[in-house]
Each structure stands twice: as structure tokens, then as C-alpha cells.
């Protein structure tokens, strides 16, 4: 067995931390490691948590970690924050809410930036999930700000996808409807200590019940829970709902091992091919200078971007 | 996608003093310089700081402390990093620190100490010149 793989399976924190950095930095060497790591994955239960900025996702993750630890489960956390489009830098502040777990050997917390990944965020986060999975973590919690398609895609590959809203987010609920309603397995109204909870509850319920026919045919009907993450209210009940959803997946929806699910594998392999293709093509075109030359030609009006694109892409495929 | 390695730094506030305005300002300056900044919040023990730095695979830890215990706290971080064979992580610090102590801190492995009033630009430049993303 590869030396790195051995250390990861043994749970060596430094090696895990470094491999995740290498994945994030797009080091080509990691591909071999990931191949060897694959047989050691597939055991973790992955929970994706998304919602608008500031709704209390990190506070909730912190409480979830505490509850899961009480149940003797080990936990990995990936907390994704946006990269500044201006500087390429990022402030990764989710950890502030979770620092009480930093010295617990049963918990591994990692902050990630979205970077400018050409849709590669999903790929790199998924690989990071695999690393924590191979490291032996029972649960992996992934926090993203539910704004971009990428961030949404990240959580959608989870076993259970959780959408967090707060009271009085009327317009935001419209946005959820447009984008991420379909992917929510559990809806949480956090900050239920605030005004407007019932209205948000009935808005959400109405949206979910539009799919009543689906549930009548046996599909999972997403529960809506009121919680107060910062006061640890409703979190235990929320985790019970996760358990229920896991049982539903295991009994009805083709099992918990997504690696044996045709739909999931189709989807993941498809995305992987897409990401890899883009990567290979862009790398080649930047290295050869063809990309920059094409940009110049378009600017000077010598060629239209449609033809330029075709001229660039088609030859790399043959 | 082959990307350039990004500098990752952690901004941490050990000790008991109660506000983190300074730490937040420096965190923003680092972000604007293109670094990824992990922020861990107030009242961190050296043990928590080092554990977090290792999980986050940062290249540098910037400690800021206004309370008197900086000497013990900064040195404890350096010592713990050494213990964990993670002393390739650069440690720098800022705060109201007497010259004598600055000397001692530097001798013991704190790479640089910034006193109040050091322009943000100078701090950022120092990081750019002295902290490189890990190459291996
Ligand atoms: N009143 C109230 N405040 C809460 C509750 N849960 C969290 N908060 C507060 O909401 C604020 C934001 O919490 P975070 O956990 O950082 O929110 P987040 O969604 O992770 O934020 P981003 O990562 O920046 O998008 C903090 O000040 C929390 O203390 C709650 O149940 N009630
Ligand atoms: Mg957060």
C-alpha cells in the first residue's frame, strides 16, 4: 500500500491535512493517491448543510458535532467559504464557532475556499470527503453558503442535504424554490427564537406539499423543523430526523452505499469526466499559448469567439 | 486544474483580552493580499491554535495579543509546533510587547514581532517576503 494511503487510513492528521491541500491546489500527483484511497472509502455518512450567509450554519455544525460525539461517532467537517473575486484571497471564519472541538482527536475540521475552480469545487470537495472517509470518520458534515450552483452541487452529493433558513426570509424562500428546494431532504428554520417563524413554516410547507403526489408514491417527504442552534434547541431532534432519512435511504432508496448506486455513479462519473476534460483542455491550451493567441485575435477582430472556440477545442479531442 | 499554491495563514488570538478588532483588520488585509486566512476567534489556548493550524495546513500563524501573557503564549505555540514536528509553520506575533521580550521571542523561534502602529502594508509585505506556500 502507498505510504500516504497507509498513513491516512491510520488517521494521521498531518498527512490528511496536507493531502487536502494538495487536492485543493490541483496537484496532479494526488490522482494516484485518490485511486488507492478509493477502496477505503464508502463508510462515512455525509451530510450537506447549506443556506444563506449568516443563518447559523456553523453554529449548527458545532452543535451537531457535540451531539454526534456524545453518541460516540467520529466527525469530519468541511466548511466552505467564498473566495474574494478581487484578490483571490478568502477569510475562512466558520471555525470560530467550532473551535471547542479542535483538540478532540475524534474530530477533524477543515476550512476550504471556493477559489475559481471552473466547477471544480464539487470535485475537490468530493475528494476531500473521500479523504476524511478513508481516515475513518463516521460522519462528514459539509457546510457551504447556498449561493452559487457550485456550492449547491457540493451539498447535493451528500446522503442527507439540509437547507437552513431563518424567519422572515420571504424572498429568500422564493429563491430556494427556484433553485434548491428539490435537493433539500430536511429543512430547518433556525433562530426560531425570532419573530415570523410560523409564516416561514407555512411558506415552506406549502412549497413542499406541492409535490404531495411524489410522497404518496413513497418518496421521502422533507420534514421542517424549528431550531435554535445557538441554544442547542431542537438539534437532537434534527439528528433523529437524519437517522430517519438514513434508514429511508437504506431501506427504500437503493442503499447507503452510493458507490453501488447506478444513478449516483452515473452522475459522479459524468461530473468527473466534465471536470477532467476542462482541466486537460485548458491546461494544454494555456501551456501552448494558443489560448492567449486566440484572445488576442478575437480582440483584434480577426476571428469570432465561436470559431476560435471550435478551433481550440476540436483538435485537442482528436 | 493545476493551480498556483495559495498562501494559507491562520490568525489567532490567544489569551484573555476581550476584543478582536485588530485581528479582523489584519485578516482582511491578508485576504486582500490574496491569502487564504483561517480565523479562529478569541480566547484560544496554544494547544487549540496548534491543533487547528495542523488541520488547516497553514504556512503561517499570526498571533495577536494585547494582554500581558504574550511571552508565555507565543513561546508555547512555538514549542508545541516543534513537538508535533510542524515547526515549518512560521510564527509571527503582534501586540504591545517590550523590546527585551521581542529579542527573546525572536531567539526562541518567533520569526517576527509587530508592535502597534506598524502599517498594515508593511506586515503584509513581510508575509509576502517571508512566508512561502509549502513546496513539497
Ligand atoms: N438568535 C439566534 N441567533 C443565532 C442562532 N443560531 C445562530 N445564531 C447567530 O447567528 C450568527 C451567525 O451564525 P453562524 O453560525 O456564523 O452563521 P453561518 O450561516 O455559518 O454564517 P456564514 O458561514 O457566514 O454564512 C451568530 O451570531 C450566531 O450566534 C439562533 O438559534 N438564534
Ligand atoms: Mg459559517
Automatic annotation (TrEMBL), chain A:
One GO MF term attached to the UniProt entry: GTPase activity
- The source's domain of life comes to Bacteria
The record, for InterPro entries, names:
AAA+_ATPase (IPR003593), GTPase/Isobutyryl-CoA_mutase (IPR052040), GTPase_ArgK (IPR005129), P-loop_NTPase (IPR027417)
Where the record annotates domain AAA+ ATPase, the positions are: 43-187
Does Transmembrane helix count among this protein's keywords? Answer: no
Keywords from UniProt, A to Z, are:
Chaperone, GTP-binding, Hydrolase, Nucleotide-binding
Name the SMART domains on file.
Answer: AAA (SM00382)
UniProt cross-references to CDD domains, sorted A to Z:
MMAA-like
Q: Name one Pfam family in it.
A: MeaB
Per its UniProt record, what Gene3D superfamilies does this chain match?
A: P-loop containing nucleotide triphosphate hydrolases (3.40.50.300)
UniProt cross-references to NCBIfam families, sorted A to Z: lao
- Into which family does the record put it? Belongs to the SIMIBI class G3E GTPase family. ArgK/MeaB subfamily.
Name listed for the protein in its UniProt record: Methylmalonyl Co-A mutase-associated GTPase MeaB
Q: What species is given as this protein's source?
A: Candidatus Desulfacyla euxinica
Lineage start:
Bacteria, Deltaproteobacteria, Candidatus Desulfacyla
UniProtKB/TrEMBL annotation, chain B:
Q: SUPFAM superfamilies from the entry?
A: Cobalamin (vitamin B12)-binding domain
**Superkingdom classification of source:** Bacteria
Show where the B12-binding domain sits. 6-134
* Metal-binding recorded as keyword: yes
Q: Name one Pfam family in it.
A: B12-binding
InterPro entries (alphabetical): Acid_CoA_mut_C, Cobalamin-bd, Cobalamin-bd_sf
List the cofactors.
adenosylcob(III)alamin
Q: Which UniProt keywords apply?
A: Cobalamin, Cobalt, Isomerase, Metal-binding
Q: A GO molecular-function term, please?
A: cobalamin binding
Q: What is this protein called?
A: Cobalamin B12-binding domain-containing protein
Q: Which organism is it from?
A: Candidatus Desulfacyla euxinica
What is the organism lineage in this UniProt record? Bacteria, Deltaproteobacteria, Candidatus Desulfacyla
Amino acid at each position: 500500500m502507498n505510504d500516504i494511503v497507509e498513513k491516512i487510513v491510520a488517521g494521521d492528521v498531518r498527512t490528511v491535512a496536507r493531502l487536502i491541500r494538495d487536492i485543493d491546489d490541483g496537484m496532479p500527483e494526488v490522482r494516484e493517491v485518490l485511486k488507492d484511497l478509493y477502496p477505503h472509502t464508502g463508510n462515512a455518512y455525509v451530510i450537506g448543510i447549506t443556506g444563506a450567509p449568516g443563518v447559523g450554519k456553523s453554529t449548527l455544525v458545532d452543535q451537531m458535532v457535540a451531539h454526534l460525539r456524545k453518541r460516540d461517532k467520529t466527525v469530519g467537517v468541511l466548511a466552505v467559504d467564498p473566495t474574494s473575486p478581487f484578490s483571490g484571497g478568502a477569510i475562512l471564519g466558520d471555525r470560530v464557532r467550532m473551535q471547542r472541538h479542535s483538540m478532540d482527536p475524534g474530530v477533524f475540521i477543515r476550512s476550504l475556499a471556493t477559489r475559481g475552480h471552473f466547477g471544480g469545487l464539487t470535485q475537490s470537495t468530493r475528494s476531500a470527503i473521500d479523504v476524511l472517509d478513508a481516515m475513518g470518520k463516521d460522519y462528514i458534515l459539509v457546510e457551504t453558503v447556498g449561493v452559487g450552483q457550485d456550492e449547491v452541487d457540493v451539498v447535493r452529493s451528500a446522503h442527507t442535504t439540509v437547507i437552513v433558513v431563518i424567519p422572515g426570509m420571504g424572498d429568500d424562500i422564493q429563491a430556494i424554490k427556484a433553485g434548491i428546494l428539490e435537493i433539500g431532504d430536511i429543512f430547518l428554520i433556525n433562530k426560531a427564537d425570532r419573530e415570523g417563524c410560523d409564516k416561514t413554516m407555512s411558506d415552506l410547507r406549502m412549497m413542499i406539499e406541492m409535490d404531495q403526489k411524489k410522497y404518496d408514491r413513497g418518496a421521502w417527504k422533507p420534514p421542517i423543523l424549528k431550531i435554535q442552534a445557538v441554544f442547542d434547541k431542537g438539534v437532537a431532534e434534527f439528528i433523529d430526523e437524519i437517522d430517519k432519512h438514513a434508514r429511508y435511504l437504506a431501506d427504500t432508496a437503493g442503499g447507503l452505499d452510493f458507490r453501488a448506486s447506478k444513478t449516483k455513479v452515473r452522475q459522479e462519473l459524468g461530473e468527473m469526466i466534465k471536470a477532467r476534460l476542462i482541466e486537460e483542455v485548458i491546461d494544454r491550451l494555456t501551456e501552448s499559448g494558443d489560448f492567449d493567441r486566440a484572445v488576442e485575435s478575437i480582440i483584434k477582430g480577426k476571428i469570432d469567439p465561436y470559431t476560435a472556440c471550435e478551433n481550440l477545442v476540436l483538435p485537442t479531442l482528436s | 486544474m493545476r493551480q498556483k499554491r495559495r498562501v494559507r495563514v491562520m490568525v489567532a488570538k490567544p489569551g484573555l483580552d476581550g476584543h478582536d478588532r485588530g485581528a479582523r483588520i489584519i485578516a482582511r488585509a491578508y485576504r486582500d493580499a490574496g491569502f487564504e486566512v483561517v480565523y479562529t476567534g478569541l480566547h484560544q489556548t496554544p494547544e487549540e491554535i496548534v491543533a487547528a493550524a495542523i488541520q488547516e495546513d497553514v504556512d503561517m500563524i499570526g498571533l495577536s495579543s494585547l494582554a500581558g501573557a504574550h511571552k508565555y503564549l507565543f513561546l508555547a505555540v512555538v514549542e508545541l509546533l516543534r513537538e508535533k514536528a510542524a515547526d515549518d509553520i512560521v510564527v509571527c506575533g503582534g501586540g504591545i510587547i517590550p523590546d527585551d521580550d521581542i529579542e527573546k521571542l525572536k531567539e526562541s523561534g518567533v520569526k517576527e514581532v509587530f508592535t502597534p502602529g506598524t502599517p498594515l502594508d508593511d506586515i503584509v509585505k513581510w508575509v509576502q517576503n517571508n512566508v512561502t506556500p509549502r513546496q513539497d
